[in-house]
Amino acid sequence: xxxxxxxxxxxVSSLSSxxxxxxxxxxxxxxxxxxxxNFQRNTVQADNKVFNAEAARKExxxxxxxxxxxxxxxxxxxxxxxxxxKTVAEPFDIKTKRAGKEGKDPLINVFDSIDVLYYGPLxxxxxxxxxxxxxxxxxxxxxxxxxxxxGGCTGPLINSSKSTTxxxxxxxxxxxxxxxxGANGTVATDAVTVAxxxxxxxxxxxxxxxxxxxxxxxxxxxxxxxxxxxxxxxxPFFTNLVxxxxxxxxxxxxxxxxxxxDGSELCIGCVNSDKFSGDIDYHSIDPxxxxxxxxxxxxxxxxxx
Length: 305
Ligand SMILES: *[C@@H]1O[C@H](CO)[C@@H](O)[C@H](O)[C@H]1NC(C)=O
Ligand SMILES: *[C@@H]1O[C@H](CO)[C@@H](O)[C@H](O)[C@H]1NC(C)=O
Known about the structure:
This protein has helices at 41-44, 53-67, 72-89, 237-244, and strands spanning 2-6, 11-13, 103-106, 108-112, 114-124, 129-136, 142-145, 167-176, 182-194, 197-211, 220-223, 251-255, 265-268, 280-284. The protein is α+β, with helices and mostly antiparallel strands. It has a single domain (3-38, 49-290), classed as Acid Proteases (Cathepsin D, subunit A, domain 1), CATH 2.40.70.10. It is globular. The chain binds 2-acetamido-2-deoxy-beta-D-glucopyranose (2 copies).
């Protein structure tokens, strides 16, 4: 079973960074979140394709017993969410995709005791210069390290002088993630391509310093969260693709391998049926944890247990 969250415009599978810590009033983009309620994942996820719902239900009871009560209000919300689900899920069907664009890219799973992040290729400029980014569903900005980087960048770096379509601004860009890593620079626009899909004037943080262990095997980061969480106050890459109206389906999906093995993939405008078996399970996203403003791909846990 593949878990897919459904919104009016956007659909996504599998969150790569949940929001386990309390949100501060000025919500920080989230990434590499570390506090976890310890599900015994091996039983819940019998192999890396099949979700074991019965084991998940048992696990939910075990966690509930260990971490306290789920109050009546939550139970009530659970039931109303379940009722709401059918009506939200029905209008969307993967099989009814339009004639339109879609694209896949293989991702590399960075494994260091845990599956830390998934990164893959991205290109910037005219002609395109290649770099790579950590694909992050918990933040909403594109961060690109530039060739004038004076600290912390591993690269590959993008040289704006070599692009005929690059437009810089004087607007300061500064992002800091929950793990205290971040980057500073200015807001710029240029052509950006991922999985063969191009946004001609994509805004991003053209950064000249990265800190707190921001870059590692990945050079930059592409946030796949919602526009209201963008510190650059500009539209995220996926939002621009959706608004262009050219995608086969307004969704993206990930296949995330475990333990650093090959085969991870990002599919934009598509779901790769070679990567899972069984039916797709749809869940409404719920902004109530962030004051009713949709910042993250939040799914209430009780919605799928
Ligand atoms: C960027 O490209 C320009 C034009 O080709 C070149 O003169 C400059 O040295 C490059 N900058 C860096 C830091 O590589
Ligand atoms: C990044 O910018 C912030 C201001 O938003 C500043 O406090 C911080 O010192 C800067 N970090 C670096 C490494 O330049």
